Amino acid sequence: MGNRELLITAGVIAIVGLLLSNAVNLLAEYARTRYANSFAHWLRVRLLRRMASQPYSYFLQRNSGDLLRKIMGDVSNYTSSVLLPLLDSIARALTAALLLATLFLVQPVIALFAALGLGTYYFTIFRLLSRKRQEISQGLRTAFGGSFCDAQQMLGGIKPIKVHRAEEHFLSRFAGHSAVVAQ
Q: What is the model's pTM?
């Protein structure tokens, strides 16, 4: 096998490896996001359930807006500001190390062509998926708004809800919307 054939073979192997790496990254990103959203759903439902189990006097001493902020805002902030970046950093560091090792094993010319190819690949994928991303984003906003509304209705009308023991009705409505966000 001559130098040219070896170079072409190594280039093809590197490109296939990078494409496989991207596919694995996509699946890992999906898994990370799904895990973080499921954790946020579990935490929101648990917080609202715990608040709903408190006696009425608990709600007399607290502002329902503050309770709502804790359930919806703080959990979302934790998920988006702490959990997802942490999971993302771990995955990116591992991916970067593997990519750098692969690129340095191959000649620099191939690394340049791989960078151009990957840049084109990413640009194309992001352009193709932008409409789907917008549709999903709108669905998430609707579901998050439903969760917010259900929690607000429950906390705003806590006295009649406690009197009529209707906590489970509101909790199930809230959990339904929150589960859509977790998907």
A: 0.56
Tokens of 17: 């490896």
E strand or H helix at 10, and its extent?
Answer: helix 3-52
Q: Could you give the CA distance from residue 166 to residue 131 in angstroms, rounded to a whole number?
A: 40
> From CA 144, how far away is CA 164, in angstroms rounded?
27
pLDDT in tens, 20-69: 988 888 898 889 888 988 998 898 889 888 888 888 888 778 777 778 77
Tokens representing 79? 């998920």
As for how many domains the chain has, the answer is 1
List the one residue out of 19, 25, 35 whose CA is nearest residue 92.
Answer: 25
Residue-number span of the structural domain to which 33 is assigned: 3-182
**Radius of gyration of the chain measured on its C-alpha atoms:** 24
Cβ–Cβ < 8 Å for 180, 86:
no
